[in-house]
Structure formats: structure tokens, C-alpha cells
Amino acid sequence: MNSYRYFDYDRSFEGLMTVIFELYEDIERAKFMPDDQGSLFDTKVFIATDMAEATRVLKALEDKFPKRFMREMVAVFLSCDNNKEDILIRAIKGVFEHGYGYIFSSEKAASEFRRIRRNVLSENHNYKGLLRFKEVEGGVMLAEFEPKNDILTLIVPHFVKRLPTINFVIADVKRGTAAMHMNGKVEFLELKSLDYTISEKEKFFEEAWKDFYKTIAIDERRNENLMISNMPKRYWRYLIEK
Question: What is the mean pLDDT of the chain?
Fold first, then answer.
């Protein structure tokens, strides 16, 4: 028999902060278990989000530790890693008990926290350079992508700053979410489907780019393994030249 205290929550960031508040004294034994896991022999508690409790945890974190730690926590929370909840709650308790320097220690929760943070921020950085926009009818610029991690909220500020006067939509096709930047304001929304027609100007530039790509390519020197090592295939789907 294991000694875990299994929990579930509503998958919100505030919900996980509530978990920390409720299970703080026993976090070492706490373990996240979603509904589709476990057995009849496992006991599990569902912890409902309590905004007052979540706010107390967040305020304590903001008051005691560098602002960068909050950004790092959010990055880890947006990860696709199956163990992110367990790692986050243990890492946060470790920081409360030992200070921010704990994150740089060799403790398992700290090292895993750094690994996940690095993975999320690296993907976010890569897409800042790889995200491709195309003009659709109506003059709106559209970019589709399918990131491993849920980085939509992380990447949008970069493009708002870079394209402040452009109306654009960034769509996470994998998760069915989108960020809409219209007239200087950003709105995040669910995306049930994505139906659009590219503009005539976009068609012209896409064909021109394909022709340019084919012209400069040397078939005899094509090395797909090298291409994959420089840019993994998961980034290729929305590249026009691919």
C-alpha cells in the first residue's frame, strides 16, 4: 500500500494554488490523479477552487520572492508534462521553506522544476521566430500552430509588441484556443473550428516564396536528417515551403 494522498482539481492555476493552501502540511504525500486514472482501491479528494485561499498563496509568493519566480511558476503550469502538478506544489513549498535559492538546488522537485521551465520557455522562444502569419480575407493576419506546451498566453505579448498596429489571430489548433488582437486589444477565446480563405495578395506571396525556395534548393545536397536536427518535424506543418 502506498501512502499518497491523491487529489484532483479544476485544472486552473488558482485551483492548484488552492491545493497548496489545503494540503500544505502534507504536500510531500500529495499526488495529482486525474479522473481517468486510479482504481477502486485509491481514495481521492477533489479540491474546489477557493479564490480567497489561492489569493493568499499568490500574495505570499509575490511579497516574499522575486517576480521572475511567478513567471517561472506559470511557465511550468503551462507545460504538457504529466507530473507538473506534483512538481509545482513540492517546488513551491520548498521555496517557502528554504527561500528562492531552493530552485537552484539538487533536490528532485527543484531540478524537475528547472527542466520543465527550460522546456516550456525554449519552445516559446523557438515559436517567436517560427510562427508564420498569413493574410486572410478581411485583412487579418492569421498564424496557426500546435505547440507541445500550452504557450499561447506566453507568446502573444511578444507579437503584440512587435505588431502593435496589426490585427492578428494566433490559433492553437491542438487545444482549440486562440488569441485575437484587434485594435490594440487582446482577447483569448475557445476555437471550435477554423474556417478561412487566404487573400489574393497572400496567394501571390505564398507562390512566390515556394518558387524562391525551389529555385535555391539543391536536390543533390538535400539532407533531411540535418534539417530535422536543426528544426524538428513538429515545427514543419505550418511552414509554406514544407
Answer: 90
